[in-house]
Design brief:
Layout (H helix, E strand, L loop, with lengths): L6 E6 L9 E3 L5 E3 L7 E6 L7 H17 L4 E5 L11 H13 L4 E5 L15 H7 L23 H23 L3 E2 L2 E8 L12 H8 L4 H5 L4 H10 E4 L2 E5 L7 H5 L5 H10 L19 H5 L25 H11 L1
Length: 336
């Protein structure tokens, strides 16, 4: 028996109240309201289509481009902690940086829940109604009019490959029919799939080469690659900490990208990234043991921690780029 896997990639746009709403926690402290549902998109990929950080960034480009068109140039991503999203992988950093650069965002912030707490990620709750809708569903492994699946037919390899793609596409189309009326939080779930015959997705189709370079410890491999300029750009704009990654436009007069794409969200960028030195790290509360200051409390501090040293004194910055030594030790080989 042959078993094939269809991989769903889910994305949700959390609905933010406009104007912002404030609520209080159990201690009576002000907090900003962020709803934990919103329009969701699921993009399915068949067994012949790789699912990597490049796939996810390619999925996000059209979704975020619409947000940018609406004037939203500071984007937050709460990502899965798996290898395809993890903020600690050098290849992932480069693809996130491309998203920041090519959408001309003022700032891109990516974070994830701690290990063991991924269930708190709102996108995880989308899978429940989908699973219910697919209970007892079996997708066909044969083409219409045929009684034998392609893998058991005595046909040339090229013909078998073509039929294989058709079987997967047919299965994903049928899957979409089962899920087309599913909603989450009152919002319909948008479904699509990547055709199995597509071997290179766009706009980023260089994952294999990029991964090879970014995971190599060879300075020669890096210097001879097409990524030198991109990595230098990334190191000038990145801010990496534990479970956190951000990119922000700089004020360097020699930076052609930032000078050629002026900041749109002036107040946010000025207060947080320029005057504040970066998005604040979590700050333990001195008054409530086991709790952290709220974002509202941190914003009212005269200065805030951007190095995670409030949580662990041994943490600190690399002397060359705004990343911890763990990241810098990987990339410095390529810079030398």
């Amino acid at each position: 028996m042959i078993s094939n896997l269809i991989t769903p990639c889910g994305y949700m746009k959390l609905v933010l109240p406009n104007p912002p709403e404030r609520t209080t926690d159990t201690f009576g402290r002000f907090q900003y309201t962020v709803h934990r549902n919103g329009p969701a998109t699921i993009i399915n990929r068949g067994p012949l289509t790789k699912c990597t950080i490049a796939s996810h960034v390619n999925d996000l480009v059209p979704l975020l481009r619409e947000e940018v068109r609406l004037g939203k140039t500071v984007i937050f991503i709460i990502a899965d902690g798996g290898c395809n999203f993890h903020v600690g992988h050098a290849s992932n950093l480069l693809y996130y940086c491309r998203l920041f650069r090519d959408l001309k965002l003022d700032a891109l912030i990516i974070t994830s829940y701690a290990p063991g707490q991924s269930a708190l990620n709102p996108i995880e709750h989308v899978w429940s109604p989908c699973t219910n809708a697919l209970a007892s569903v079996s997708l066909p492994d044969k083409l219409p009019g045929e009684s034998i699946c392609p893998w058991h037919q005595d046909i040339p390899e090229e013909e078998m490959a073509g039929k294989e793609c058709k079987v997967y596409d047919q299965a994903m189309e049928e899957l979409g029919e089962y899920l087309k009326h599913v909603e989450f939080g009152g919002f319909p779930i948008q479904l699509s799939h990547i055709p199995s015959a597509v071997t290179e997705e766009s706009p980023y189709s260089d994952y294999n080469e990029t991964y090879k370079v970014m995971s190599s410890n060879s300075g020669k491999v890096y210097r001879e690659s097409h990524l030198v300029e991109e990595v230098e750009f990334m190191l000038r704009h990145v801010d990496k900490r534990i479970g956190f990654l951000s990119f922000a436009k700089c004020r360097d007069a020699l930076c052609h990208h930032c000078q050629g794409n002026p900041i749109q969200a002036h107040d946010v960028m000025q207060h947080i990234f320029h005057d504040g030195g970066g998005f604040p790290s979590p700050v333990p509360s001195k008054d409530r043991d086991g709790h952290f200051l709220t974002f509202h409390e941190v914003m009212n501090l005269p200065a805030w921690d951007t190095d995670d040293t409030e949580m662990q004194q041994s943490l600190g910055r690399c002397s060359i780029c705004r990343a911890y030594t763990a990241l810098h030790s990987h990339l410095v080989v390529k810079r030398n």
